[in-house]
Recover the amino acids of this structure.
């Protein structure tokens, strides 16, 4: 027995020493580790906590008496804006309508040129125009107001995170109470870690269960903000230490506000919905300030499992979860019995999934991003919350997309082509402003891949011909619309190059044909001969003047469209012609502001006289004859009659590309149809692209061509049968414009070729 | 000053009568929205806020794209901000839309004055 005592003492002394050593040994690295975590917490929490994507908006819809608009168009716009249709209008974001009467409570919005407050208005539409706009409260007339623009996309951080930042004072108390009642009752009492919850976690550890639950809001924030989603003891310990550190450095309000902006609410395609600010818009189309108790409860309930409780897919599940949150609110006396019952009896109602992802218009968005990158760093675009105001018209974009999708499918059936053999693109630009109103780069319009509108550089076939004829008509002493051109066998010889013998599409020669008719019928041989007479270089210079900046090959076959251009570039050429010979660099962006609405950049309208008014006027008239009696005669009658469009078909060798470029008084549109592997599509410009163009313009609000007759241009008669000039008083005449220098002698003939000058009754009749 | 005088003349209709000729200044548009935007543009222009003035006029042009007087007004703003090349181009566009001999003459004078 006595022997044992020293050994016990010795063992005890040894244990204390060991323990001290262990403690010291552990505490030094532990303190170092805590200091390391502290640095991480402070560094990441200081300054900017979130990357805010740039928001890209469509053009805002301007409303004013006299504006051309249908009830269908206005309804479409309000739907796209997620305005809620209600029987009674009480707050912004709501509307009601009956036939041609609309009552709209427009949301407040900060535009580039200033703030527009919320406005409750009544709009009357009559015969496709706005008749009156009145204030709903006093009936006073209004001259002008804008709807807020539709958000058509964003430029997101790499993970596709989207959020709308909110300040704590914007958040309704019901939401904060619901959050605390459900997620962390002792939020205002603990220091980042709740000891009770820790004990619970330890218990589960010893019982062999998975570590779960018990995280405070601060811990959840730490987990989302700093850590991975793994469930391990070490991660949990790290989370607790960091939560405590966070509470040491930052106030409860700061932590709560960050939590509200951080949390995840699910996916909209490739866009991740984060924060209560965006969630309230995503689910209820309203700003967070206007959330009702039952809506706050639903959002809080979603935090437990945004996918599992997704109210759009699992309404009952979501409602059960919401009701648990409401009960917590009531049990903890945050709401009274009356409010509780009212909220409990309100059915779960969320809006339709926007289903737009990062953008429903990826081709247009790509163009916007390319233009922005000239002025902004990529990182700024993805993090600074810039607001980009673009020119896209969602209504017109929708029409373009639908026409392309539907017509490509039907063309495949008609031509017995394999499914998805055809691809296509559409570019549509406002004639007067050069603003891009729609751009489609793929028949799968939401596909974010190869953008054919911008990047498919294809042979353009006969689309180049207006440049040849414009070059000729600019020499008014030599050429006019009725100048006889030779459409007879032609061989072009050039040293070092194989002889070139162009052929017509119908493999025939047509003899002597008036200039306007060779364009209308798209005769290759006549055009090639004319082009070589004028000089390939001169023709290519005209193409440059019309808006093509890149170098173009100056070989003769280029005259028949072996030049490679994208649909976007082709649109620029035809836009200059449609715009009276004035070149306007296209714009996809109007303005950029900061997140707060401070103006940054404007992209000005710019205009440059490129072609003299007279020859431009003549070529427009000739291009109208392409539609009236040439290769584009297949346009729908309604389009031809109402819009008097002008345009040109284009087809390439072996029917590989089908083009149509055309314009009305206010829109210029180019459609390309082809195959990505450059295989034959069995379609000409007339049988393919023209059909799509016709379909678009059949549904598009547009105006007819009305160009003022320039000085020195007069109308004379040409024979409807031969196309050549005829004398005054002849029957069967078609009026065409001529430069006064062009024709010198009177004609005495009806129905025969003539280059005579006829100061005829046509002048009085047509010289508008 | 020349701007004011020219712009007034652009929208002037001289009415002849047996007595002294009277000059009636026609509005730039009959559309209330356009008039509102032009007035706002002129206010900004007076304050040398040319970007804002251009923005307002471009909005007006989207409403009435073939209104020669609007294009001419924009040409004045371009000139005021010393962008003479653009002023000339925009004035030429105004001229192309002009249906009034007096307006056309004034645009030509404006272009002459830029040289």
């Amino acid at each position: 027995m006595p022997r044992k005592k020293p050994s016990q003492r010795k063992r005890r002394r040894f244990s204390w020493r060991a323990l001290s050593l262990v403690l010291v040994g552990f505490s030094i690295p532990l303190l170092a580790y805590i200091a390391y975590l502290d640095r991480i917490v402070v560094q990441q929490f200081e300054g900017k906590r979130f990357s805010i994507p740039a928001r890209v908006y469509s053009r805002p819809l301007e409303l004013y008496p006299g504006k051309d608009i249908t009830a269908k168009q206005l309804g479409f716009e309000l739907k796209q804006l997620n305005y809620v249709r209600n029987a009674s209008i009480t707050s912004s974001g709501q509307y009601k309508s009956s036939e041609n009467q609309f009552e709209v409570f427009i949301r407040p919005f900060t535009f580039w040129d200033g703030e527009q407050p919320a406005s409750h208005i009544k709009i009357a539409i009559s015969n496709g125009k706005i008749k009156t706009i009145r204030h709903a409260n006093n009936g006073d007339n209004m001259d002008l107001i804008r709807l807020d623009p539709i958000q058509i996309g964003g430029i997101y951080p790499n993970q596709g995170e989207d959020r709308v930042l909110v300040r704590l004072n914007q958040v309704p108390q019901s939401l904060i109470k619901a959050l605390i009642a459900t997620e962390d009752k002792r939020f205002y009492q603990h220091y980042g870690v709740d000891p009770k919850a820790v004990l619970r976690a330890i218990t589960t550890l010893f019982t062999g269960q998975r570590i779960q639950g018990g995280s405070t809001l601060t811990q959840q924030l730490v987990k989302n903000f700093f850590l991975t989603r793994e469930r391990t003891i070490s991660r949990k310990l790290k989370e607790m230490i960091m939560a405590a550190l966070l509470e040491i450095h930052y106030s409860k309000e700061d932590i709560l506000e960050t939590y509200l902006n951080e949390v995840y609410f699910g996916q909209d395609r490739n866009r991740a919905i984060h924060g209560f600010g965006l969630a309230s818009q995503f689910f209820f189309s309203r700003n967070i300030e206007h959330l009702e108790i039952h809506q706050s409860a639903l959002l809080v309930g979603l935090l437990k499992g945004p996918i599992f409780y997704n109210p759009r897919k699992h309404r009952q599940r979501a409602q059960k979860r919401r009701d648990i949150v409401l009960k917590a609110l009531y049990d903890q006396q945050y709401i009274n019995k009356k409010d509780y019952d009212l909220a409990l009896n309100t059915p779960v109602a969320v809006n339709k999934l926007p289903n737009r992802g990062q953008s429903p218009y990826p081709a247009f968005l790509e163009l916007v991003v390319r233009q922005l990158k000239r002025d902004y760093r990529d990182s700024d675009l993805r993090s600074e919350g810039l607001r980009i105001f673009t020119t896209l018209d969602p209504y017109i974009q929708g029409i373009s997309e639908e026409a392309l999708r539907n017509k490509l499918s039907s063309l495949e059936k008609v031509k017995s082509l394999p499914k998805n053999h055809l691809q296509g693109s559409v570019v549509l630009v406002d004639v007067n402003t050069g603003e891009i109103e729609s751009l489609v780069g793929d028949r799968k319009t939401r596909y974010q891949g190869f953008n054919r509108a911008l990047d498919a550089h294809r042979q353009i076939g006969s689309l180049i011909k207006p440049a040849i004829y414009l070059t000729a008509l600019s020499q008014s002493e030599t050429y006019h619309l009725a100048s006889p051109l030779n459409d007879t066998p032609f061989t072009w010889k050039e040293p070092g190059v194989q002889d070139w013998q162009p052929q017509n599409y119908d493999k025939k020669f047509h003899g002597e044909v008036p200039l306007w008719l060779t364009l209308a019928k798209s005769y290759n041989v006549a055009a090639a001969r004319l082009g070589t007479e004028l000089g390939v270089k001169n023709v290519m210079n005209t193409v440059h003047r019309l808006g093509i900046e890149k170098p173009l090959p100056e070989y003769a076959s280029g005259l028949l469209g072996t030049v490679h251009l994208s649909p976007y570039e082709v649109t620029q050429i035809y836009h200059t012609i449609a715009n009276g010979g004035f070149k306007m660099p296209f714009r996809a962006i109007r303005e950029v502001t900061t997140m707060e609405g401070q103006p940054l950049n404007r992209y000005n309208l710019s205009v440059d006289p490129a072609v003299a008014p007279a020859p431009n006027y003549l070529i427009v008239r000739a291009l109208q004859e392409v539609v009236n009696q040439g290769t584009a005669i297949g346009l729908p009658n309604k389009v031809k009659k109402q819009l008097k469009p002008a345009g040109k078909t284009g087809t390439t060798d072996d029917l590989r590309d089908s083009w149509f470029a055309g314009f009305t008084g206010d829109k210029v549109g180019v459609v390309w149809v082809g195959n990505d592997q450059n295989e034959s599509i069995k379609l000409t410009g007339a049988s393919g692209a023209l059909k799509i163009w016709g379909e678009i313009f059949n549904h598009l609000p547009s105006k007819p061509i009305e160009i003022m007759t320039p000085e020195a241009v007069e109308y004379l008669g040409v024979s409807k049968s031969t196309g050549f000039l005829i004398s005054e008083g002849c029957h069967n005449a078609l009026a065409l414009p001529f430069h006064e220098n062009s024709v010198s002698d009177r004609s005495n003939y009806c129905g025969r070729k003539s280059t005579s000058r006829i100061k005829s009754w046509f002048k009085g009749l047509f010289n508008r | 000053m020349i701007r004011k005088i020219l712009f007034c003349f652009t929208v002037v209709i001289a009415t002849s009568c047996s007595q002294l000729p009277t000059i009636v200044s026609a509005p730039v548009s009959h559309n209330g929205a356009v008039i509102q935007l032009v007035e706002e543009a002129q206010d900004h222009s007076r304050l040398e806020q040319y970007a804002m003035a251009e923005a307002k006029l471009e909005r007006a042009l989207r409403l009435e794209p073939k209104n020669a007087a609007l294009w001419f007004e924009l040409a004045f703003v371009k000139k005021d901000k010393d962008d003479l090349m653009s002023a000339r181009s925009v004035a030429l566009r105004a001229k192309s839309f002009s249906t009034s001999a007096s307006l056309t003459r004034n645009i030509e004078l404006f272009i002459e004055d830029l040289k």
About this structure: The longest strand of chain A covers residues 119-126.
